[in-house]
Amino acid sequence: MGCSPSRSASAILVEPRSTPSINEMKSDEELPADSQKEEFLKELIDDTDFPNEEFLQESMKSGKSEGSSKYSSSSWDSGVYELEDDYSHVITENSDPGKVREVDKEFVPNKNLELILVGKACPARLSARDRDVMEQQAILEVLRDEGLIVRPPSKAVGGIRFELVEAQNALSNQSSSIHKLPPLSIRKKHKEKKSELTHEEIQQKLIQAEERRKKRTEEKLNKIATKDRQEIQTIAEQQAEINRQKLNQKLQTTTESREKYLSEMQEKLKAREEHANKVRERKKMLANGFKYVLPNGTN
Fold this sequence. Notes:
Coiled coil: 192-282
Protein name: Stathmin
Number of helices: 8
Keywords: Coiled coil
Region (Disordered): 1-37, 51-77
GO molecular function: tubulin binding
Helix content: 55-70%
Strand content: 5-15%
Largest sheet: 2 strands, antiparallel
């Protein structure tokens, strides 16, 4: 509405006429009378060719808007009072008074008018924790709709632990494992049939209970004994293995030292035998009269 261009009005061109100015009139001390003003306006209108009277009114309005647009934002030039073609039928404070009176006469108030507010409420802003809770509830609702059963078997610290089981499997397992109690009437009859126990029967039951207790105790002791024997046997085997390894290591070191000692003794005997052979050869040579020269050059 305010963005539509203002009406284009053609400018009025007035030819300059030699009229006395106000200063000249003051200097002559003669001001024009009312009759002179009317004659001047008639001459001005006669000299200018206007298309019609409406064009003159529009040009005057546009002239006023040009003068006041600098100071007012709600002038005709700003386009505030101009409506689009789609809203030309709307009655405003600037509409034709005759049209306004016609609308007032034709208006019939609706007494049984019902006003309905249609819309969607804005959701409240939730915290992160509340959003997580709502998401979990939505997931659980979807699982229930898909045929899954949510069963809380036990409570954990800080919440509930759930176990998800399919409906068909859960029903089949329950029917096979859980035995239903007989009706109340049958149970009452069964209780009535039971007679009071005698002293001998009580003693017999006590003896049987004692035997069962002893049997359980013996089984526990046997388990402990077998466990102890197994532990002792394993410990003995481990110790024997350690001793065997130590003995093998000792025998190996002894054998190595013995072999080393024997090799050293053989080398010593060999060196002694060589020295004895040299001494014998020297004695033979001396006995035969040969002059024997030692390796170092002495006799």
